[in-house]
Amino acid sequence: MRIRVVALYCLFLASFTAPATAAPLEVEPFDSVNQSPLLRIFGLPGPGNFLLLAPGQTEVSLNNVLSNNFSVQDNPREEITLDGETTVTTLKVRHGLSRRFEVGVKIPYVTHSGGFLDGFIDGYHRTFGFREGGRNQAPHNRLLYHYRRDGVDRVLVSNAGSGIGDLALTAAWQLYQVRGPEKEGLTLNMSLKPPTGDSDELRGSGSTDLALWLTGGAEGKFEFGTWTSYGSLGMLLMTEGRVLPEQQRNWAAFGTLGIGWRPLNWLAFKIQADAHTPFYSPSDLKEVSAYSVQLIPGGTLYLSDNTCLDIGVGEDLVVNTAPDVSFYLTLRSRF
User: Fold this and answer.
1) Residue-level pLDDT at 162
2) Cα angle at 197 between 63 and 97, to 5 degrees?
3) What global pTM score does this model have?
């Protein structure tokens, strides 16, 4: 239901905007992170932007991510069930303070529920012959995020609920830039996440996290449209949280690589890979302690010179380290 409300909101806004004739907005990375219920609670940031806002300019975005999780695994010491849907709606505001510096804030609203996508995904798997992985034997639309180790329940969320997650304060410095027909940029980014969400309900980690990362990119115009390439690389530092504190690592590395093609002023296609190192150890379960890579293909619709809509679908390239599927919908507007 929540994703339908956001979609209607986007259509409503689009009805008051004329199609772009010369969209000045560059192709930006998807604002995406791993949405696994055990991992998204930490301060893992999105890739950021390689060109910052102009002085006095503000960008407001509404990011909605609907993720369907299903994984059931066990070994002699551990067992895990991640079965459910998580919707995260994030209000993000960033503002250019000077030619090379901007600040921002992210406020997420997190909902865990049994959802409604299980039947659709089961049918999709059967139609195309994909492996079920036990989906066809599990109850449809169940919520059960459960991790048990050495006979003790370490994580258990089985009742639907929602609330504010861990907010984040952000800042970015433009280290290098070229603007014009050819665009290039390199930024240094920082994000500070205090523990504002309920860790017992997996809406927060209970830790204070600091992320530092570089984002670079270039945009060039060619005969068949505009091409953009971008990437990021950084480190996340975490204090001890309240979710699996005895297994939590205090740092993780992360990065992104992506490419975009805008054949028309009002339309761009892009594909992006996000990766990070493990957040927990020791564990023999990939859901808990493994390197993760997600792939997000999709695109951008430029609704006006200052407003655009990102649409993407995330898949776990390293199986069981991220949700089976995540649907990204981000509406951005500058003024």
Assistant:
1) 97
2) 55
3) 0.89
